Amino acid sequence: MGIDLSTISKIREMTGAGIVDVKKALEEAGGDVEKTIDVLKKKGAIKAAKKATERTAHEGIVECYAHAGGKVGVIVEVLCETDFVARNEEFKALAHDLALHIAATDPIYVSPEVVPPEVVEKEKSLASEEFAGSGKPPGVIEKIIEGKLGKWYSDTCLMSQAFVKDEDVTVKDLINNVSAKVGEKIEVKRFCRFAIGG
Q: Helices (H) and strands (E) in the chain — how many of each?
């Protein structure tokens, strides 16, 4: 059976699988495009191709910021995908704004996802103790606890905080906006805030 190159290209665009995988799957499926895609799925070729093209942030900068007459200092590691974007003025301005924000708000964690489970459970426990014996229905108490936890995240997690220069935008939104402009994944890897007497 002759394999049509345009069909191979079409399937590659649809699945991200390699030429050899597509060709073998096409032969196995007797030239049927839908069956070929099924064969590729079964063999994991699509999954492997997607994994290989996942975007990783492995470039970036370390931004340093000192505030309040040298009484507060911040070091923040901001990552992007390429050295080209790491040298971009908008990316550098973002890193500076993030360092300034951290100096002003003193977050503890980068995002809610990295908060240790035992810390989350302690916060939930404290919130539930507050309403013990209140007579409120369990469903209402659960919603109140979730609300209090959300407020706690916005106080302690960088990504959940309202940005100090524009309180209508979260830090996560700010990063996503710059990411969309430069066309690359951007993430805060870690940060450290120092304060005299802190």
A: 9, 5
Q: Which domains does the chain have, with CATH numbers?
A: 5-53 (1.10.8.10), 59-115+157-195 (3.30.479.20)
CA distance 123 to 41: 43
Are the C-beta atoms of 171 and 159 separated by less than 8 Å?
A: yes
Q: What is the pLDDT of residues 142-185, one digit of tens each?
A: 888 888 898 999 999 999 999 999 999 999 999 999 988 888 89
What is the pTM for the complete model shown?
0.68
* DSSP-assigned letter for residue 109: B
- CA angle, corner 17, sides to 14 and 20, nearest 5? 125
Residue 55 vs residues 58, 61, 121, 179, 187: alpha-carbon distances, Å: 10, 18, 32, 12, 12
pLDDT digit string (tens) for 97-106?
Answer: 999 999 999 9
Burial of 58 (0-12, 13-18, 19+ CB in 10 A): exposed
Calculated CA dihedral for residues 106, 111, 114, 120, nearest 10 degrees: 80
% the chain with pLDDT above 90? 47
- Which one-letter amino acid corresponds to residue 10? K
List the beta bridge partners of residue 64.
75
Phi (first) and psi of residue 78, to 5 degrees:
-115, 125
